[in-house]
Amino acid sequence: MGKLSVAIPAYNEELMLPKTASVLTQLLEKENIDFELVFVDDGSKDATWQRIEEEARRDSRVHGVHFSRNFGKEAAIFAGLACSRGDCVAVMDCDLQHPPGTLVEMFRLWEQGYEVVEAVKRTRGEESMFHRASAGMFYSIMSSVTQIDMERASDFKLLDRRAVDTLISMPEKNVFFRALSSWIGYRQASVEFDVQEREAGQSKWSTLGLIRYAISNITGFSTLPMQIVTGAGILVFVLALILGINTLIHYCTGTAVEGFTTVILLILLIGSIIMISMGIIGYYIARIYQEVQGRPRYIISRML
Length: 304
Ligand code: UDP
Ligand code: MG
What we know:
Elements: E1 4-10, H1 17-30, E2 35-41, H2 48-58, E3 62-67, H3 73-83, E4 88-91, H4 100-111, E5 116-123, H5 129-146, E6 157-160, H6 161-168, H7 177-183, E7 188-194, H8 207-221, H9 224-252, H10 260-293, E8 300-303
Bound molecules: uridine-5'-diphosphate and magnesium ion.
Magnesium ion is lined by residues 93, 95, 97, 198, 203.
């Protein structure tokens, strides 16, 4: 029987962490699953690390990784994968919004030979209207760009050692776990779960954070926006042809005096298209720049 590692990114989760640790420990012991818990403290500003230390002192199956600062959930997930020693590694949130019962279901599927088991949301939990709308927009853009159903996808996944090694050996620094874990292939299976309500603490996502996340993931998975630039160029070229012929006719018939409005409109239109296009290309250049710098995904300052 294989050993299960549970990688748990935690950012300012002092309230939830002890509960999560005890719920998981009790459940996995009851199910007779050999396990370890790997908490990744993503540079929390509260007592999360002290809580992890306390848990680790009490139970040798609890391990902790502490980042030198907040690197974001993606980095924390990858650190969790890299520091896990199990034959399979599950990634789940620290707020128990991912039901532990589903984790056992996923583990059983892994025992049947599936190498990537993903949990998809049957329903979304309680969220504010605004958050629901912005998350909805984010996921529909992401789904069309990555060709993966992002609406229901989550970071709650269980990966075989082989899949884990594939993921952590990827050279790119800017990673998107949710999409990459299905992109790698392998024998995949999925289970459904209902997103639970967060009992304590609050969601760490701001709308601005979601937008930044969306841009970084879209540029990471698709060059479609750059093709849109080409499309815009072709459109303006067609307009230029029509207007050009029109202008020539006016010139030849000797009526080429007015047309000041057209000039202003053209300058504004072309100017804005050029600037937007440069912005889009800029995002890709920024990504290339970041990758070329080759900085690590995260910096670990302490480990248990
Ligand atoms: N998280 C993290 N680093 C961050 C933000 C969040 O490790 O910068 C962790 C957080 O502690 C939690 C998980 O990611 O375990 C999901 O975060 P949250 O519950 O805030 O997101 P939501 O459930 O609202 O999507
Ligand atoms: Mg949550």
